Amino acid sequence: MKILLLVVGKTTESYFSEAIKEYSERLKHYITFDMEVIPDLKNMKNLSFDQQKEKEADQIFKFLQSGDYLVLLDERGKEYSSVQFAAYIERKTHVVPKRLVFIVGGPYGFSSRVYKAANEKISLSKMTFSHQMIRMIFVEQLYRAMTILNNEPYHHE
Ligand SMILES: C[S@@+](CC[C@H](N)C(=O)[O-])C[C@H]1O[C@@H](n2cnc3c(N)ncnc32)[C@H](O)[C@@H]1O
C-alpha cells in the first residue's frame, strides 16, 4: 500500500515546508509516502467560496485513480489517539490494495462532491488548523504511527 497526502495549494511558509520535508524523509524508511500539491488556482478572487471549492474539487478528482481509498482530513471527522491511528494504518495495509489517499482541503474546506466521494473523514483535533499547518501535523502523526508500529522509542504514553 502506498500513502498519498493530497493538499490544495502550495505550502507558502518555509517553517512548515521544512518540517514537512523532514518528516516525509523520515517516513521513507517505513512506507511509500508522497505528498502531491494541487497548484494554486488563478483568478480566484472574484469567485465565491463555494465556487472556489468546486474548482478545487475538479483538481482533486483529476489526481484520483480508481481503487484509491479516500480519507478526508476534516475537523468534523472521527478522532483517534496516536496509538489508535497507528493501529488504523496497520489495518489499512491489509485491506487497501493500492493507494490510501488523505486529502487536506483548501482554506474553505471541501465541496459536497468531495465529501460524497470520500470513504471516511478523520479529525486531527476538534480545533480547526490552517490548511497549511494541518499537512505538517499529519506527516508528524504518520511518522509517529510508524514508530509505534515498529516499537521505536519516539512515542511515549
Ligand atoms: C482552514 S480549514 C477549513 C475549515 C472550515 N471549517 C471549512 O470546512 O470550511 C482547511 C482544511 O484544513 C484541514 N483541517 C483543519 N483543521 C483540521 C483538523 N482539526 N483535523 C483534520 N483536518 C483539519 C481540513 O482538510 C480543512 O478542509
TrEMBL record:
Catalysis performed (reactions): pseudouridine(1915) in 23S rRNA + S-adenosyl-L-methionine = N(3)-methylpseudouridine(1915) in 23S rRNA + S-adenosyl-L-homocysteine + H(+)
Pfam families per UniProt: SPOUT_MTase
Residues binding S-adenosyl-L-methionine, per UniProt: 73, 105, 124-129
Entry GO terms, CC: cytoplasm
Entry EC number(s): 2.1.1.177
KW Iron (keyword) present: no
Broad class of where this protein is predominantly found: cytoplasm
Keywords: Cytoplasm, Methyltransferase, rRNA processing, S-adenosyl-L-methionine, Transferase
Subcellular localization(s) per the UniProt record: Cytoplasm
UniProt family annotation: Belongs to the RNA methyltransferase RlmH family.
Oligomeric form and interacting partners: Homodimer.
NCBIfam families (alphabetical): PRK00103.2-4
UniProt protein name: Ribosomal RNA large subunit methyltransferase H
